[in-house]
Automatic annotation (TrEMBL):
Keywords: Coiled coil, Kinase, Membrane, Phosphoprotein, Transferase, Transmembrane, Transmembrane helix. The lineage of its organism: Bacteria, Pseudomonadati, Pseudomonadota, Gammaproteobacteria, Oceanospirillales. It catalyses: ATP + protein L-histidine = ADP + protein N-phospho-L-histidine. This is histidine kinase. It comes from Thalassolituus pacificus. One of its GO terms (molecular function) is phosphorelay sensor kinase activity. The keyword Transmembrane helix applies.
Length: 453
């Protein structure tokens, strides 16, 4: 034999101690896993039991025999509770406690060598029954997507069979009187104990990892489902807003046409009627602006979020001139070389249109709007400024926020989306949108250009 019994017991003690430490560290890593606590306590009991076996002859035999056997059975009883928790069941101590109470007198009252066979049988019965309980629990709770349970169930069923074989062998060949550690033909039992200690820790770690992985997969499935539901709800909401906005446009146009007609036909002799018509016109303008803003919001959001934008090399000068012509403002500046921007022509047009619209709302008159640009080899800077009231310092950081409006309670129409889309579109083109004017309202858009030779 390669090792004597004492050496095998020492190896078993080291193995069980390492298993206990590994389970403790694993438990501290994932403390929310309830089954790890009894499993760790069971591994500690198993380790202490092997230490007591190793100390046989150095401490009282009665203490070593009784405590070691009871701790060994307790370790498997705790593992049984851990497996029940892993399988979603409540702990059940009635059968393990009855088994331990039934067998404990044998270890307490018969510590002498003459009753070694009786103690071997009692120990094998206790451990075997508990191993079979563990195996049955895992087998009944087996699931196709959790194969580790089936493997661990087979391992502990094998341990139960080994205990049964040990009982039969002891009954057929009762051990003779001997001093402990002198019987070399029992080495297979301790080798199996070393293997079982490894299985004990390994099975817990594998099953916990498997369950954590399955839990993570389920969470990912739930998140994907929630994302799909949210996306569907968003699409339905967008469709509803678009439909509602379209339905509003016709009656709003009718109201606008009639208020204009009333204004033209009025002899302006009734100030109250004129004031009422003016209020209706202003309210109609605000609602029309809101409806158009919702439609633009939906269209731009679709372009940005659904990857519908078509990015290609676009001549920035052409885009800027189109915007200037559309709003009848003068474009100042030129480029000595083609200013090519990698972007979506439609989105770039919206970006600069929003800036010009914003300037038209706040400028004293159209002549107070400045639309200029300049380039170098790497970038283009486009400025849109107006001679209206400068933006207060406390609003400068929030001016690009969605739905933020400084004059929300005043007569200036708007939805608070224009400047938000300015920054969003600029960032989509790897550019920047900034408010740089201190004494006037000046916005600067910086866009990267195609490098030229």
């Amino acid at each position: 034999m390669l090792f004597d019994i004492r050496t095998l017991v020492a190896i078993m003690a080291i193995t069980t101690l390492a298993s206990a430490v590994a389970l403790f560290l694993f438990w501290r890593l994932v403390p929310e896993e309830r089954g790890l606590r009894p499993a760790t306590l069971g591994a500690a009991s198993q380790s202490l039991a092997t230490v007591l076996i190793l100390m046989r002859g150095q401490i009282a035999d009665e203490l070593s025999i009784f405590a070691a056997n009871m701790l060994l059975m307790l370790s498997y009883a705790l593992l049984y509770q851990a497996m029940r928790i892993f399988c979603g069941q409540q702990p059940q101590w009635r059968l393990p406690a009855a088994l331990m109470l039934t067998l404990s007198p044998i270890f307490f009252f018969f510590p002498d060598t003459e009753h070694l066979g009786l103690r071997v049988i009692a120990s094998a019965v206790g451990i075997g029954v508990l191993c079979f309980l563990i195996s049955i629990t895992l087998y009944r709770a087996r699931q196709e997507h959790l194969p580790a349970r089936r493997g661990v169930a087979i391992a502990f069923a094998s341990a139960g069979v080994v205990s049964l074989i040990r009982i039969i062998t002891t009954l057929n060949n009762p051990p003779e009187n001997m001093v402990f550690f002198d019987k070399s033909d029992d080495s297979a039992i301790f080798i199996w104990g070393i293997i079982l200690a490894f299985i004990y820790a390994f099975s817990i770690i594998v099953m916990t990892s498997e369950r954590l992985r399955e839990s993570l997969k389920q969470k990912l499935r739930d998140e994907q489902e929630a994302h799909q539901i949210a996306d569907q709800a968003l699409q339905e909401q967008r469709a509803f807003v678009t439909m509602l906005s379209h339905e509003f446009r016709t009656p709003l146009a009718i109201i606008r046409a009639n208020t204009d007609a009333i204004t033209l036909m009025s002899d302006h002799q009734n100030a109250d009627v004129d004031a009422a018509v003016e209020r209706i016109g202003r309210a109609n303008l605000r609602l029309t602006t809101l409806v158009n803003g919702c439609l633009n919001n939906d269209r731009i959001q679709n372009l940005l979020s659904d990857n519908r934008a078509t990015f290609r090399w676009v001549n920035l000068a052409h885009v800027l001139q189109e915007v200037a012509d559309e709003y009848d403002v003068k474009l100042i500046g030129r480029s000595d070389h083609p200013a090519m921007v990698f972007g979506d022509h439609h989105l770039l047009f919206i970006l600069f249109s929003n800036l010009i619209n914003n300037a038209l709302k706040h400028a004293r008159n159209r002549a107070g709007i400045e639309f200029s640009w300049r380039t170098d080899k790497q970038k283009a800077d486009i400025d849109v400024a107006d001679d209206g009231t400068a933006i207060a310092a406390e609003y400068r950081e929030r001016i690009f926020e969605k739905y933020f409006r400084i004059n929300a309670d005043k007569r200036t129409p708007g939805t608070g989306l224009g400047l938000y889309f300015v920054r969003t579109i600029a960032e989509q083109h790897n550019g920047q949108a900034r408010l740089i004017g201190a004494t006037d309202t000046r916005f600067r858009i910086t866009l990267p250009l195609k490098e030229t030779e």
